[in-house]
Each structure stands twice: as C-alpha cells, then as structure tokens.
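Predict structure. Chain length: 123.
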Amino acid sequence: MSPAAGLSLKILSPEGVILNAHELSGVNVPLVDGGSIGIKPGHAPLIAETIDGMVQYLIGIEERTVEVHAGVLDIKNNVVTILTAGKVTETPPEINRKTETGYDRLIQTLVENLYPEEDNPES
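Prediction complete.
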C-alpha cells in the first residue's frame, strides 16, 4: 500500500471488532507516557502501550472518535491496530475482574489478530 493510499484502523477486543476503517488520512492515539501519537500514511513500524481515552481518526476532512480502554498499539504497513479490552461505553466483564486469565486472553487475541498468517502454516 502506498503512503497516498491511506491508513487502515482496526480496533479489536477479546469480544470482537470494535472498529475497522479504511482510507484514513490520519489517526491520533493516547499513549501511556501522557502524550499522544499522530499517525499518517507511511508511518514507521511501532508498538506502544495506550491508555483509556479517545482515539481520533480522519476520513477525508471529517474527524471521528471512539473512546476505548487501555491496550496495545501496533503500526505496520499503513495498518494501525489497537488491541483493547473494549469500548469505554461498553465495559466488558474482564475490565472489572483484574485477573491474569483476562490479561492472557488479551495478549493471545493480539497475537492472533496481528499475525494470522504466521499462526497458520497451511500456506
């Protein structure tokens, strides 16, 4: 995908896809260090930790937002993937039960969704 083609944004939770948007001109994500990161097409690969907050994204000149819980951000090949425990407005039970099992499930979902081809050697 060329930088002019735009970004894809995937926000995933253990329960499923929260958002899957394409042809974006920019994405802004709050990070654990207290700042935020602005992402444009052609951004370098990156993995970072996010915090609860608003993820903003641009479709053309229209700005949209979705509020999500803390998670993990992955940027690779113009695809911005955020793995989170869910939307703030729809708090899943895993948020209220801070168990290692919930954390393990979140990490497993991240791995499965970020690298599906590597986990499936049938090709």
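Summary: DSSP finds three helices and nine strands in the chain.
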